[in-house]
Amino acid sequence: MKTYIGIDLGGTNVAAGLVSEKGELLGVHSQPTPRGAEEVADAIAQAARAACAAAGVGAEEPRSVGVASPGSIDPARGVVEHAFNLGLDHVPLMGMVSERLGLPALLENDANAAALGEFVSGAGKGYDSLVAVTLGTGVGSGAVLGGKLFTGFNYAGMEAGHMVIRRGGRPCTCGRRGCWETYASATGLIKSTREAMEAHPDSALWRFAPTLEQVNGKTVFDAAAVFDPPARQVIESYLDDLACGVANLVNILQPQVLCIGGGISRQGEKLLAPIRAYLDKEEFTRDGERRTKICVAQLGNDAGIIGAALVPLYR
Ligand SMILES: [Zn+2]
C-alpha cells in the first residue's frame, strides 16, 4: 500500500497524519505549534515521525510529505511568504522539511488542502467535482474540478472569500471593500452581532454575551432561538450574504457538491435550508434537473491532513 504524510500547520497545533492513497487516515499525531522557522520545521518532522509510529510504519516508507499552510505561500518554490501568526516570513519550508525527513515535500494552501480532503474522503467522496467553503476567521475556499485540484496558474486561485458581494462595503484585509469574507466569515458575523447589540441595548443578545468581547459565532443563534428580533435580523442578513456568495460560486463552477465547514456549519439545516431557498430563487440552473448538492463538510480538521497528504496525486 502506498502511503503519504499530510501535515495541517495551524496557529495552535501541528497535526500530522499517515494517509493511504485511498484517503484513509492510518495514524495521527498532534503537537503545539512553536514560533520560528527552524522550530516549525522541527515540529513538523517530529509530528510526521510520530504519526508513522502510531500507524506502525517506518518514517522512510511514505512516498512524500505534504504541508498545508495558512497565509500566503508559493507552492512552486515551496516557500511560505507570509504566515505572520506563525512567525514565518519568506521561509523555504518545503526544503527544510524534505531535508529533515529525507522525503520529497510539497506545500499547499490550507483551504485547497481541506477541499481536496473533503473531495477524497468526505462530502465529495464518489463525486467528480466539489467546492469547499470554510467559515472561520476569514472565508477559505478550494475546488476540485474534473478530479483535479484547481489552483490557478500561479497557485493563487479560488480566493472566493475576496469576491465582492457589496460594492463599497466593509473594508477587507486584502485592500478591497465588500469582500464576501467581511460578511460571511465568523469574524463578519461577530462584527454584525456587536453592531446590533450597540444599536439595541435591550436586545436579548446581551443575555448571551454580557460584554461585546464575549460575542462569538454562536451568540446570535442562541438569541434568535428565544425570538430576539435584532438577532433574527442579523441572521437573516448574514444568511443572505452567505448565500449570495454560494450562488455566485455555483453559477460559475457548477460543482456536483458544495460543502460548508467551520464552526458556524454546526448550525446544520439552520444554515443550509435558507441557502437552498436562496438558490431556488437565484441560481441560474434553478429549473434544471441536475443541481449542486449543498451540504456540510464532514471531516473537520482531518480534511487538511488528508488533502495535504494526497496533493501529489491530484495536482
Ligand atoms: Zn478581500
Summarize the structure.
The protein has 315 residues and is an alpha/beta fold. The protein has helices spanning 37-55, 93-101, 110-121, 180-184, 186-199, 205-208, 219-225, 229-253, 269-282, 302-314; strands at 3-9, 13-20, 25-32, 65-69, 72-74, 79-83, 88-91, 105-109, 130-135, 139-145, 148-150, 257-261, 293-296. The chain folds into two domains: 3-117 and 302-314, ATPase, nucleotide binding domain (Nucleotidyltransferase, domain 5, 2-Layer Sandwich), CATH 3.30.420; 127-296, ATPase, nucleotide binding domain (Nucleotidyltransferase, domain 5), CATH 3.30.420.
What does this molecule look like?
This protein has 315 residues and is of the alpha/beta class. It folds into 2 domains: 3-117 and 302-314, Nucleotidyltransferase, domain 5 (2-Layer Sandwich), CATH 3.30.420.40; 127-296, ATPase, nucleotide binding domain (Nucleotidyltransferase, domain 5, 2-Layer Sandwich). Helices cover 39% and strands 22% of the residues. The chain has 10 helices and 13 strands. A hairpin with a 4-residue loop joins strand 2 and strand 3 (25-32). Helix 7 crosses helix 8 (229-253). Bound molecules: zinc ion. Zinc ion binds next to loops.
Question: Helices and strands in order, then pairings?
Answer:
Elements: E1 3-9, E2 13-20, E3 25-32, H1 37-55, E4 65-69, E5 72-74, E6 79-83, E7 88-91, H2 93-101, E8 105-109, H3 110-121, E9 130-135, E10 139-145, E11 148-150, H4 180-184, H5 186-199, H6 205-208, H7 219-225, H8 229-253, E12 257-261, H9 269-282, E13 293-296, H10 302-314
Parallel strand pairs: 1-4, 4-8, 9-12, 12-13
Antiparallel strand pairs: 1-2, 2-3, 5-6, 6-7, 9-10, 10-11
Helix pairs in contact: 1-2, 3-10, 5-8, 7-8, 8-9
The structure holds zinc ion.
